[in-house]
Design goal:
heterodimer, A: 491 residues, mainly beta, Methylamine Dehydrogenase, Chain H, four-stranded antiparallel β-sheet, globular, B: 187 residues, mainly alpha, Rna Polymerase Sigma Factor, Chain: A, Arc Repressor Mutant, subunit A, 9 helices
Chain lengths: 491, 187
């Protein structure tokens, strides 16, 4: 029985890469290499191949099908891949912070001068930082480090974080922490209840949203394909109510309601719940990728993948529809077909409403749609080399601020920050952030006339850049001694 | 020979045979890797299969020419860690079972000796941490170079070297001296 699994040169004598092992350890290594291991037969491998082929075929053959979930969040392992994932987390955090801020009642906004804006980040245990996971706060005005909080839970490192109403909320798997934003003091810590044993909380399902004194967060168990939305009392973390959404992981809180994408009774739905009690209000049948609410209307994007006749599952194309629903009853007010690209999914197809238009990033372009009937007003002009990248953006004072990662631009080392006129889609200005090794980035937030950007490098090191909102020039840079798992900003 | 990255890209483009080649390349190495990590042959097979299912499930997140092997082993690592976590123990029982196929030996005396040596090694490995077992598996089981192992684990080359040293030192303290002396010089 062979003991080596790959056909490589022996690892014991490669002096180019290996410091010479003492003979006694080489002997141990040789002994280790004699460990006899099970080896699947070719029949077993062929059976696995057949099951994989069937499984991949089935995944897309039932029409309509949903676009894939957001990518799985994992602990640091390969910096480049992790960096890509970090962006997902950062964007997710940012989007939820933004969503919460857009819809928070004035009473929950911190009073002027009462608290300073901060940027909070969760460190990852990597080659450049081997300590315990830590939540770190930096002052937004100049990047100065303010406080740190060490997480004791080894297997529940926060991957979702937000700062709202002077409190930092962070969640790692089922563990939720609340820290005082001013000094990082632990206010409370709870473990969310879960009905089954051995769950695998691999996803960054949802986020953390504060609204009317309640924290909303969602957990998704990959093993049982179960997701639960929890409503927690912000004061002490007590669970007020919970709702099982059947494996989906998208929700929005607005206007006294919680809108949850769900898969129940063998169909995809948008479910509206009473915010205070979790009571069911109405549902709309459809696979939902984005949700936004304004006044008495809920706007959703539904993306359905279809396989062309005679095609294979890999030929599946996404078809998008923008719908306006009555927030009261869930009835369709209007619907409009929209262009979506391969990657227009929940973590990409983010939608923001401004005045009379809906701004949507469809996977490759920004597009604006008339809020009254959904007709297209404009789409931005880009020729991205990597359509489908996550393009975080924010809308402030009739300006869309978008950041394009190096991969989107077809290279490495340049992150582009762009300001677009939200009325026309025209580029107002564009600025390159030069960081020779940058691979990916995340837009953390826009606050106090500054754009906060997180840049990730293959080495694992990361930096926060603060740029002027007016012209994109750099205000300050803070280099983290670690890679972050989640980042957010607020006060 | 097509690279792993090229094959996965081909499969993403609809060429079913490409996945077949990848599975043929890495099914056995993954089973062996899981066995070295967790010491359970059946579990190793289950997790290896699960790794491939997760791989194809997340296929759309792969973008050529992102390195394939680190991605594959990253999925495997997470599955192994999830198993450990769910089992509420960090040090797993590496003496759980032996694959039946290991027992096909015509010489009973040789079989007994082999079994003793295997048990001795598994017993010693049970004293190592997950990270130590992992680096040994990659370096001396999967026979990855130091640089390749560093890339797979996302740690510097120096960490691989130091982790290898400490793992081997610890393993040595728990191995029977006679078993070390009997090790034939294969390399």
């Amino acid at each position: 029985m062979a003991n080596s699994d790959h056909q490589h040169a022996t690892p014991f004598d490669d002096d180019n890469e290996t410091e010479p092992l003492p003979e006694e350890l080489r002997q141990v290594a040789r002994r280790y290499a004699t460990l006899q291991v099970p080896r699947p037969t070719s029949e077993e491998t062929n059976r696995l191949i057949a099951r994989l082929q069937i499984s991949t075929s089935q995944d897309l053959s039932h029409l309509p099908v949903r676009p894939p979930r957001r990518r799985r969040r994992v602990s640091p392992f390969l910096e480049m891949l992790a960096a890509v994932l970090v962006v997902g987390v950062v964007v997710g955090s940012f989007l939820f912070v933004l969503a919460a801020r857009l819809h928070q009642p004035p009473a929950q906004q911190p009073a002027q001068g009462e608290a300073q804006n901060i940027i909070v980040s969760v460190s990852a245990n990597t080659k450049i930082f081997s300590g315990k996971p830590t939540i770190v706060a930096n002052r937004a005005s100049d990047g100065k480090h303010i406080w740190s909080y060490v997480i004791d839970q080894q297997f529940a490192v926060p991957t979702v974080i937000t700062v709202q109403a002077h409190v930092v909320y962070a969640r790692g798997k089922e563990q939720v922490y609340a820290l005082r934003a001013s000094d990082g003091k632990l206010l409370w810590h709870i473990s969310l209840p879960w009905p089954s044993s051995s769950p695998d909380f691999g996803h960054d399902a949802g986020g953390l949203v504060l609204d009317h004194g309640t924290i909303f967060t969602q957990l998704l168990d990959d093993v049982s394909e179960t997701s639960i939305l929890f409503a927690l009392r912000a004061n002490d973390g007590r669970v007020l109510w919970q709702y099982q959404a059947g494996g989906e992981e998208l929700f929005t809180v607005a206007g006294g309601k919680v809108y949850v994408a769900a898969y129940l009774d063998n169909k995809y739905q948008l479910v509206a719940l009473q915010e205070t009690t979790g009571h069911f209000l109405w549902s709309y049948d459809g696979a939902i990728s984005s949700i936004a609410q304004q006044d008495n209307r809920v706007y959703v994007v539904s993306i359905v993948w279809t396989i062309p006749q005679g095609g294979t599952p890999l030929d599946a194309k996404p078809g998008g529809t923008l719908l306006a629903l009555s927030a009261q009853h869930g009835t369709v007010l209007w619907s409009s077909k929209i262009v979506t690209t391969f990657a227009a999914r929940a973590d990409v197809g983010h939608m923001i409403i401004e005045k009379d238009q809906i701004i949507f990033f469809n996977g490759s372009h920004f597009c604006a749609y008339q809020i009254s009937d959904g007709h297209e007003l404009w789409c931005s002009q880009h020729d991205p080399s990597d359509a489908g990248s996550i393009i975080p953006f924010a809308l402030v004072n009739n300006t869309i601020y978008a950041t394009y990662p190096p991969l989107f631009l077809g290279g490495q080392g340049v992150t582009q920050v762009e300001a677009l006129d939200s009325n026309t889609g025209k580029v107002l200005w564009s600025k390159n952030v030069l960081d020779p090794q940058s691979l990916m980035h995340g837009l953390i937030a826009i606050m106090d006339d500054s754009i906060y950007l997180l840049v990730s490098r293959p080495s694992g090191a990361e930096s926060i850049y603060a740029l002027s909102l007016n012209d994109g020039h750099q205000l300050w840079q803070y280099d983290f001694p670690f890679m972050t798992l989640a980042t957010a900003a607020g006060s | 020979m097509a690279t792993n990255e090229e094959l996965f890209q081909e499969w993403q483009s609809g060429k079913a045979d490409a996945l077949t080649t990848l599975v043929q390349r890495y099914h056995a190495p993954l089973v062996a890797h899981f066995y070295r990590l967790l010491g359970d042959a059946h579990l190793a097979e289950d997790l290896a299969q699960d790794t491939f299912f997760r791989l194809v499930r997340n296929a759309r997140s792969y973008r050529y020419p992102q390195p394939f092997l680190p991605w594959l082993y990253r999925i495997a690592r997470n599955l192994a860690l999830n198993y450990q976590e769910s089992a509420y123990h960090r040090y797993v029982d590496l003496q759980a079972d032996l694959p039946e196929t290991l027992m096909d030996d015509a010489d009973p005396q040789a079989w007994v000796e082999r079994q003793e040596r295997q048990a001795d090694l598994l017993n010693a490995l049970a004293h190592l941490s997950f990270e130590q077992r992992e680096v040994l598996s990659l370096r001396f089981g999967q026979e990855l170079s130091v640089n390749e192992a560093a890339e797979v684990l996302g740690v510097p080359v120096g960490t691989i070297k130091s982790r290898t040293f400490s793992a081997l030192r610890l393993l040595r303290t728990y191995l029977e001296p006679t078993s070390l002396q009997q090790t034939e010089r294969r390399f």
